[in-house]
RNA sequence: GCGGGCGUGAUGGAAUUGGUAGACAUACCGGACUUAAAAUUCGGAAGCUUUGGCUGUGCGGGUUCGAGUCCCGCCGCCCGCACCA
């Protein structure tokens, strides 16, 4: 299972050397040819895109990488898919924008700086250099002239400007809030970056802290972000659903309880409920442990203080929440119902009420809410049925009655006539109308989405361009002082924020009053950087503005991105932030019209690989082992000493499992085309692909086979004009070629690369039979038809295996570069069959076949089917009950 | 718990959206070539079978002339969200 071996040197194999079969054709040697073609593309500047090109535009973008050091197989898969689309659209006549850049800010650079005493900037740029070199070996058709790095002041100066513009437009806010603190990364995190109560990078349980921080007011666009999802027809439903859930819209009734005996300043208690129809069934009210009223009560009641402390101690982790029992503390206070001041309820503090959602206070209606019921049963609170099923008079036991809102029920305890049978929705609507009319409450829309916390107590990020003055407060850095650049002389030897530790950087004067003042030492969340890079690519040369309105969107502009490709892990984070940013940029004049930045989104699956373990020692890499397969039983051993190796489960490639395959090794051994072809074959692109040595070998065999096929045929078809065979023995081949061309185009349009690959295999199998029969005696028509077939094949592989396509194109004497050739047009007349083979069924089971002209009338087909031997035998001279003829599909004789 | 997706040979997966199930590939087996292997090339292969067929797309029903595909009920796996009032 070594990656080196016999392929590497590209020496011709023996059969070719001795000319056993056809003329001697040397093995295709990608290591030699691929760099040559890459150079040819560069010199021809084929992939540099002009903004003023009049052809229709197509913008293909893959999520740009974090410069971690080296590219991995996930990048190879992602960028191969994007490149296929880019090259194919180019061949279709579009002016294609296909740029690449670097998501270059982030914590790993700081960790590297701390551990290896290097500057984060130098570390980052060194990684960019390496990875750019790796991407170049993949043969991607990228416009490197537009390359950008988010850590470049030339980029982040515009981000600082937009931050200030957003602030002016009331889209930014500095506020004190309970925030997520990651104790390992020593910074705050946005809600979206906390997964199961842990930091998304560090995995450490986050703590809640009250801090004053900068927020983007993404909640001001909740409704637009939700509505916009409807328009994203070329997004996966899964991602749309996830965003919908994240925004979490709910509609209901907002009202206020009256408060009796509460501390000074607490006259009423605002509450939100989605079940207005249950307003006559509550038996208690409850507030969160962090509710201001609970805090006030805790101040002079040690028991309450102890209880609220206990609630907080349970923590926020998923496991803790799942096992947590409902806990409550009766405050002794009473609340009064908005519709009837004499209707009093006890006020509890309960651990299952969240301060983050709604108002942090609930109305407890046990009969129709499971949580409330559990709580009521535990503390012996009454349970009052508001409505019952139509067919039963039973009261609620230990299971709350929570029918769908559209279900009709019988209301027994509400403001209307008892016994009314209506749907819950109807009852809610009526209650809401009544409450609004009487002034007891109002309809309200509630969202789960929180504002986007962007402050990070880190060094390697975009500085927040704000100066804090004791007299003037937070003051924007004046435009002529932008960018606020990061200092280079920083140390990472003590924990915390290096910008804060820097001896001089933060000290400045107030732009307003001139007094001594301090710079904001926080930097922006790196998701801010990636929220607008797609717009910057449209004119990265603009020094004065983030975008150039003529080019960014609108009539002659690029946005929205026509096809965006990346991992599902950004379903909420990056994609939601970017959608917000586009709207904010439009609101501040940095975009003309576009609100949705990504018209088409594709989320590709992961690259996974078997894991290997030496018992007692741990994981080892695929390169260190060999696999033996004896009668279908696979076993593995270590190359160095023959030790037994356990073959473990297939998992996402990761350093810790050591199941990674280095793209450099693969490209050095097999070439970029093999790696690209393998990534596109077999697995549907949205699913995980299992990287296997056998699979790569198979892909490589096809590269060699196709090359041999074309090279051997070249002398016979070079200089021949391509023309399809309309009749004769080759007409079937020509038809297959045109059909394949049509189908592959359709597959590529839907990003179904695996299907396109399978069709190309089929055509190759067909052509190889015809080509091996080709000799000097072949007629002009045969040569023309085969020439066309080969040309189609080259055109179809060109987006996927661009180097091999160039080599083949050159071999058959094509002019110019394959990368510049137009996608061929199929002949509509050749993709329809004039003779069809119809399956003939008897009672739904296939019993024969029938060859008929495509335009044969159904009666004729029926007659022919009935004349078949198999049918005649089955009929035994009787009449069929029914004969179904589905044109171009099937005949079914029912007996 | 809620929401979404999936279940097809040894394996990855096709199946024109209700019309020949298993395309194509991987692995495997056999022939040719070779001293031998690799490479190449040709061929085989869902299962059972009394050779006429029968069974077969997680399981059980249903609709239909016809179901991998649609409907109902289960089972299993994956993903997302979750004490969201």
Label this structure with key terms:
RNA-binding, six-stranded mixed beta sheet, alpha+beta, 38 strands, 27 helices, 895 residues, disordered N terminus, seven-stranded mixed beta sheet, single chain
Unreliable sequence segments? 1-23, 316-322
Q: What is the rounded distance between the termini?
A: 59 Å
Number of strands: 38
Query: What is Rg?
Result: 34 Å
Shape: globular
| Overall pLDDT metric | 88
Regarding quaternary structure, what we see is: single chain
Please indicate the percent range of residues in DSSP E strands (runs of 2 or more). 15-25%
Helix content: 25-40%
Main β-sheet, in a few words? Answer: 7 strands, mixed
Q: What class do helices, strands and sheet pairing give?
A: alpha+beta
How many H/I helical runs? Answer: 27
């Amino acid at each position: 299972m070594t990656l080196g071996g016999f392929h590497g040197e590209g020496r011709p194999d023996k059969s070719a050397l001795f000319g056993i079969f056809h003329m001697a054709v040397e093995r295709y040697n990608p290591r030699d040819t691929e760099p040559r073609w890459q150079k040819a593309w560069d010199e021809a500047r084929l992939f540099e895109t002009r903004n003023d090109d009049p052809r229709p535009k197509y913008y293909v973008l893959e999520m740009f990488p974090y410069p971690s050091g080296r590219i991995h197989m996930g990048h190879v898969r992602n960028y191969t898919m994007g490149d296929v689309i880019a090259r194919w659209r180019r061949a279709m006549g579009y002016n294609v924008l296909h740029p690449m850049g670097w998501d270059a800010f982030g914590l790993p650079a700081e960790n590297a700086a701390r551990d290896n005493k290097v500057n984060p900037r130098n570390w980052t740029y060194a990684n960019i250099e390496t990875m750019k070199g790796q991407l170049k070996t993949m043969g991607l058709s990228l416009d490197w002239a537009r390359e950008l790095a988010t850590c470049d002041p030339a980029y982040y100066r515009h981000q600082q400007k937009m931050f200030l513009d957003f602030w002016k437009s009331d889209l930014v806010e500095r506020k004190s809030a309970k925030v997520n603190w990651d104790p390992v990364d020593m910074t705050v995190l946005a809600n979206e970056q906390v997964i199961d109560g842990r930091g998304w990078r560090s995995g450490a349980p986050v703590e809640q802290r009250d801090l004053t921080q900068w927020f983007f007011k993404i909640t001001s666009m909740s409704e637009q972000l939700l509505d916009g999802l409807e328009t994203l027809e070329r997004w996966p439903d899964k991602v749309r659903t996830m965003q919908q859930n994240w925004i979490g819209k709910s509609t209901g009734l907002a009202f206020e309880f009256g408060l009796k005996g509460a501390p000074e300043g607490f006259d009423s208690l605002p509450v939100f409920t989605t079940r207005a129809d249950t307003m006559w069934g509550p038996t208690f009210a409850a507030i969160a442990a962090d509710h201001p009223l609970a805090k006030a009560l805790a101040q002079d009641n040690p028991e309450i203080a102890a209880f609220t402390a206990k609630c907080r101690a349970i923590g926020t982790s998923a496991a803790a929440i799942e096992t947590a029992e409902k806990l409550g503390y009766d405050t002794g206070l009473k609340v009064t119902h908005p519709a009837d001041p004499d209707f009093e309820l006890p006020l509890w503090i309960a651990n299952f009420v969240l301060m983050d959602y709604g108002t942090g206070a609930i109305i407890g209606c046990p009969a129709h809410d499971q949580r409330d019921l559990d709580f009521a049963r535990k503390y012996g609170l009454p349970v009052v049925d508001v409505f019952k099923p139509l067919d039963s008079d039973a009261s609620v036991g230990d299971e709350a009655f929570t029918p769908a809102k559209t279900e009709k029920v019988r209301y027994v305890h509400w403001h209307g006539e008892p016994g009314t049978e209506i749907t819950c929705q109807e009852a809610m609507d009526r209650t809401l109308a009544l409450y609004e009319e009487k002034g007891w409450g109002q309809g309200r829309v509630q969202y789960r989405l929180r504002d986007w916390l962007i402050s990070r107590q880190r060094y390697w990020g975009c500085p927040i361009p704000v100066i804090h003055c004791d007299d003037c407060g937070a003051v924007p850095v004046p435009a002529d002082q932008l960018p606020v650049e990061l200092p280079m002389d920083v140390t990472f030897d003590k924990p915390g924020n290096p910008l804060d530790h820097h001896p001089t950087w933060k000290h400045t004067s107030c732009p307003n009053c001139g007094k001594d003042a301090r710079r904001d030492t926080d930097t922006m969340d790196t998701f801010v950087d990636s929220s607008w890079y797609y717009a910057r690519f449209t004119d990265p040369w603009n020094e004065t503005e983030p975008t150039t309105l003529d080019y960014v969107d609108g009539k002659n502009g690029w946005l929205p991105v026509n096809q965006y490709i990346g991992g599902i892990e950004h379903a909420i984070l990056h994609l939601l932030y970017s959608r917000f940013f586009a709207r904010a940029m439009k609101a501040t004049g940095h975009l003309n019209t576009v609100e949705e930045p990504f018209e088409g989104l594709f989320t590709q699956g992961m690259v996974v690989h078997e894991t290997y373990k030496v018992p007692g020692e741990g994981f080892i890499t695929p390169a260190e082992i060999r696999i033996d397969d004896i009668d279908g039983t696979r076993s593995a051993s270590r190359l160095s000493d023959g030790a037994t190796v356990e073959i473990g489960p297939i998992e996402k490639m990761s350093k810790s499992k050591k199941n990674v395959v280095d793209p450099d090794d693969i490209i050095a051994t097999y070439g970029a085309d093999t790696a690209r072809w393998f990534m596109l074959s077999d697995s549907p692109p949205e699913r995980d692909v299992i990287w296997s040595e056998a699979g790569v070998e198979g892909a490589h065999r096809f590269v060699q086979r196709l090359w041999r096929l074309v090279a051997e045929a070249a002398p016979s078809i070079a200089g021949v004009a391509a023309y399809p065979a309309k009749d004769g023995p080759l007409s079937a081949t020509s038809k297959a070629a045109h059909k394949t061309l049509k189908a592959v185009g359709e597959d590529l349009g839907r990003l179904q690369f695996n299907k396109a690959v399978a069709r190309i295999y089929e055509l190759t199998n067909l052509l190889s039979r015809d080509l091996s029969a080709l000799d000097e005696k072949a007629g002009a028509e045969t040569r023309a038809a085969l020439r066309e077939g080969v040309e189609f094949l080259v055109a179809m592989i060109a987006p996927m295996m661009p180097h091999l396509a160039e080599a083949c194109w050159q071999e058959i004497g094509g002019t110019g570069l394959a990368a510049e050739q137009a996608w061929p047009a199929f002949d509509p007349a050749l993709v329809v069959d004039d003779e069809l083979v119809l399956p003939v069924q008897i009672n739904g089971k296939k019993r024969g076949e029938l060859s008929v002209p495509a335009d044969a009338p159904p009666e004729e087909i029926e007659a022919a089917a009935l004349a078949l031997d198999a049918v005649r035998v089955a009929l035994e001279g009787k009449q069929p009950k029914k004969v179904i003829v589905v044109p171009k599909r099937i005949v079914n004789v029912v007996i």
